Amino acid sequence: MKAVIISIGDEVLIGQVTNTNAAFLGRELFSLGIPAARTVTVADNEKDILKEFRNAYRDFEVILVTGGLGPTHDDITKKCVVKFFKTEYRLDDKVLKHVKSIFARRRVPMPLINISQALVPDNSIVLENIAGTAPGILIDKGGKIFCVMPGVPGEMKYISKNGLFPYLKKKYAGKLKNVIRQKTLHTIGIGESLLASRIGDISKLVNKGKDYELKLAFLPSNYEVRLRITAIAKSPAKAAALINGAEKIIRKSAGKYIYGDDERSIEATLGTMLKKRRLTISAAESCTGGLILSKLTDIPGSSDYLMDGIVSYADKAKVRLLGVNPRDIKKYGAVSKTVAIQMAKGIRKRSGTNIGISATGIAGPGGARKNKPVGLVWIGYSDKKVTFAKDFIFTKDRLRNKDAMAKMALEVVRRQLLSIEQ
Amino acid sequence: MKAVIISIGDEVLIGQVTNTNAAFLGRELFSLGIPAARTVTVADNEKDILKEFRNAYRDFEVILVTGGLGPTHDDITKKCVVKFFKTEYRLDDKVLKHVKSIFARRRVPMPLINISQALVPDNSIVLENIAGTAPGILIDKGGKIFCVMPGVPGEMKYISKNGLFPYLKKKYAGKLKNVIRQKTLHTIGIGESLLASRIGDISKLVNKGKDYELKLAFLPSNYEVRLRITAIAKSPAKAAALINGAEKIIRKSAGKYIYGDDERSIEATLGTMLKKRRLTISAAESCTGGLILSKLTDIPGSSDYLMDGIVSYADKAKVRLLGVNPRDIKKYGAVSKTVAIQMAKGIRKRSGTNIGISATGIAGPGGARKNKPVGLVWIGYSDKKVTFAKDFIFTKDRLRNKDAMAKMALEVVRRQLLSIEQ
């Protein structure tokens, strides 16, 4: 059982957009046990699109198409689908209602052109897209699945998770030769190669048997490394056993850095911990400029543990809003252990929360001082019992630094709550 | 003259790696005037690779291949090239010396397997790769260019910039029929279809003449839409004239929404404006939870105009930190024009900045009230002369809402500074 992914759009071909959709779908198809054997990108051009449709339909069982479903003239994917399947359009009332509701919500008149978004191939199943106007279109014909989705990643992901993947799972349940199981261990604060050397000889994990296969992949992204364990076996039980074996070995050598066993972010993981423990938190940010607070509030229901926070970018603000001692700023510099500690304690007391965290550092590109390179950050932590600060050095890139510093601040709290040594 | 990009590697197909190489090469080929009409990714599998080589050689003049050049057994691209061109290997001394030097520098003995990196197809031109062990391989045969490069982005880019592109420029100098020029107009706060209907009959712009072509592409991303104008003409002068003509028409109908004529973000655009005008800004955030401040501080040198800011997530915090009247919160609700105005005025006065902005809304998924749907936000603006608040309604998705709300807050300031009606 093989799949193909077809991306449609000039903007992808000329590199104005990087094709993250193919990566997402490739990953998901693989874990479904229907690996993609090929991905293709073609222009918004009828001849090329129809040619790819023909080849795909000849060679593969599952054909996923993204892009070219917008209401504007340059989007022709749907037209090509109708042509390819020699079918007609039908007006889908549910979709039309949804499209209208989107414009109603925005309180703007709906341009007539958007009615076309509710026209779907007559032989298709409509997959809901709450995130946008173009629905997913699934055609299950001749033992083959043909699915078209918008190119906007958020919309494509929504339709995949809520419409396409459940459909594929149901359709192919029990019919696939191999069972593929994956588990991801999510680490933070340690580099890929260090992690690899800690885990050691992964040939112990990656050992290919005749009837099964176990793989360990290192997926780094700015001071987070996801360890993806993949087991391919004949039975779910065997696959599960392989995964558990691998996880044990990894946790033994790198457990401290593993904050989750899924794709959840550190802010989601920490949020759950704070809720469970009925703890409140506040943050005082300098170099991270609001990103710690923004990450915390990315989580629905974060108002249970976060009431407020301060961005004290300038020295004066650290004094006025957090009660940092100006003499200490003069003496040790704003990027210092002392100031980080005073910021953390200050925000905790002023906000009246159980926990206060702070970050003061040099995001770059400018601002480096003697013994204080770009990428240096002091992260402060304060609760009723303990107050401390810890320093880290990240990259030379401003945005990567802000992100890594904010994530580490949250990780420091996680380790403290679990009394893992910092 | 058309090109194709072939990426080889299982890790790309199963989405462990996002294919940024295709985006880079697509961009560069386009600006060279040799646009890629197709990109394909296939597995490290001889049959599939040879099939792609055949199709590519039949349909395209320039064939670029990346990946599968490592020294390990699973990398078979070079073997396929030799097979495809029915040629032999030769040992390239220069490459061998380079490979040896790399290991010498690392002070580790060279694994014998790496000698294979110096074996190149007999009919090929070697393109130097100082960044790694696998050289680029270029075959110029039958009026077609066939080039193979490593999949590691850094190495691929080095070989492209220093070997491949110069070769292509030299070979096709003057021979390319068309000049391609592009310009991107960056809009915010208006949907794709509304924008399209405002710009109106784009056939006026997209008018394909015999000897030239003018295209307008809509590239949406969460309430920003980039308008990409592409002109393909016989001369640079003609192309430039076409672009200017198109830009004039677009600006006439949608100028209000265009905040930049490049790929710069709204925070970068606003930052430059604030610096030029020597203005300072501060933000009071509720629903955006710090994202406005984080975006502002994403810009190097933002400390020139941003000193501090407040995240007042809870009602109490709005009262304590910004002086919002608790009776008004009771009467109108925290998500209201009155509260947004008091937040903006409050942060401006307490921070002593020229401008204060605020955002109070419902990011979702929960929190909707009667007449206050998820996605609703009140954005407050306050300076010495003017104070007002404006409401917007975005999506049902929390993260997209936070991002769109934060961007709109910055856009409201941009429009105010340019006295564009809100």
Describe this protein's structure.
The structure is a homodimer. The first copy, chain A, has helices at about 10-15, 20-30, 45-60, 75-85, 95-105, 155-170, 190-200, 235-255, 265-275, 290-295, 315-320, 325-330, 335-350, 400-415; strands at about 5-10, 35-40, 60-65, 90, 120, 125, 135-140, 145-150, 180-190, 215-220, 225-235, 260, 280-285, 305-310, 355-360, 375-380, 385-395. By secondary structure, chain A is an alpha/beta fold. The first copy, chain A, folds into 3 domains: about 5-170, MoaB/Mog-like domain (Molybdenum Cofactor Biosythetic Enzyme, Chain A, 3-Layer(aba) Sandwich); about 180-260, 2-Layer Sandwich (Alpha-Beta Plaits), CATH 3.30.70.2860; about 265-415, CinA-like (Maf protein, Alpha-Beta Complex). In chain A, strands 2-1-3-8-7-6 form a 6-stranded mixed sheet, with helices on both faces. Chain A has a 5-stranded mixed sheet with strand order 14-13-15-16-17, with helices on both faces. At the A-B interface, helix 1, helix 2, strand 2, helix 10 and strand 14 of A face helix 1, helix 2, strand 2, helix 7 and strand 10 of B.
